[in-house]
Write a structure and sequence with these properties.
This protein is mainly alpha-helical. Helices cover about 50% and strands about 5% of the residues.
Length: about 350
């Protein structure tokens, strides 16, 4: 099957399986639909974003941001804060750049204020959930690109600075200084890791955040720290890729399942690193691209005829969760496919 047909099927599965109340999970799917910009799916992306704006709460949080319980993993309940709902702000601002609809920028202003108003750790890290004080590595991607993009669009250095500050605080607490891999979640009081494995998708979220920040604000004074983090984490994760091309759900646990969303995030982030000139010790640019292609192609081979991307560890991630499909898994398929498209034109995937 050719890449274009596969992209159409994955996009069609997103269209045919909407879940308005998932809040943040739809954000990468929206970014994937927007970056491919296929006429058939433009109305869907706009409708979902318009609905997120229409349901923005009085406190500024986009979409629904509903309290929910977990069916597995390390939490029983999750009360969303602005750090989660900001995820929808990223594709909203991408759509604003195309449409110049001022509603989106006004909505972004309210969402950014909600981030400023959110509770923080003593170092200024925005809590991941109301049950904090906690920081989760995935929230680098969920909030930092939104803040950086909002600051750039409004010529305001404050949101850009805040994005890089949140990145540094999360990396300090969650990236292991010896192994250069991210742990999932850290709690300030009592000081411990509620979920401490080297969770593959968590590292994927972090790497994708690095790519977005360096695309949006490569000149920022803290961009050097992002580049260094990108290189170290990407190098460490690359060395743990299975011979199949996949990554294990827990990176250093070969008894855990092969996991699709982390594999697709890696494919996206590794190719973007090559484009951004990130130098990874022990890995040439060509070698990184080959790893990215291997990751994408093996995940693409699992896509079902209806466009479903299976083999995704369900929320909240970490050991003990069931596997299925998610909108962010669908979205990172589209993002990785777009990043690698020039290198896939002669391949059947």
């Amino acid at each position: 099957m050719g890449l274009e047909e596969l992209v159409q099927r994955v996009s069609g599965f997103i269209r045919d399986n909407p879940n308005e109340r998932d809040c943040w999970q739809k954000a990468p799917a929206l970014s994937g639909l927007l970056i491919w910009d296929q006429e058939a799916f433009r109305p869907l992306a706009k409708r979902w974003i318009d609905r997120a704006v229409a349901t923005q709460k009085s406190d500024g949080n986009l979409s629904y941001g509903d309290w929910h319980t977990s069916s597995g993993g390390h939490i029983r309940s999750f009360t969303p804060l602005a750090s989660e709902t900001a995820a929808v702000g990223a594709p909203m601002l991408q759509l604003f750049e195309r449409s110049r609809d001022e509603r989106y920028l006004a909505s972004a202003a309210r969402q950014y204020q909600a981030l400023l108003d959110a509770p923080r750790t003593s170092e200024g890290g925005i809590w991941s959930r109301g049950e904090g004080p906690e920081l989760w590595i995935d929230f680098t991607y969920l909030m930092c690109p939104f803040m950086a993009h909002y600051g750039k669009l409004t010529n305001d250095s404050g949101p850009v600075d805040e994005a890089f500050k949140q990145f540094r605080v999360h990396v300090r607490r969650l990236v292991d200084p010896e192994f250069h891999l991210a742990r999932h979640a850290w709690c300030e009081k009592p000081n411990h890791f509620p979920q401490s494995t080297f969770w593959a998708r968590g590292n994927g979220w972090l790497l994708a955040c690095c790519a977005e920040l360096l695309t949006l604000a490569p000149e920022h004074p803290e961009a050097g720290f992002v580049r260094e983090t990108y290189a170290r984490v990407l190098g460490a994760m690359s060395s743990m890729q299975d011979a199949s091309g996949y990554f294990f759900h827990v990176l250093d646990d070969p008894l855990s399942n092969l996991e699709a969303s982390a594999t697709l995030m890696y494919a996206y982030a590794a190719q973007r690193a090559v484009e951004l000139g990130i130098r990874v010790e022990g890995h040439s640019a060509d070698a990184l691209r080959e790893r990215a292609l291997k990751a994408f192609i093996v995940a693409a081979g699992s896509v079902e005829p209806n466009g479903k991307v299976p083999g995704v560890a369900m929320v909240p991630g970490g050991p003990g969760v069931p596997f299925g499909w998610t909108l962010f898994g669908q979205g990172f398929f589209l993002l990785a496919a777009h990043a690698l498209r020039e290198h896939l034109t002669d391949m059947e995937v």
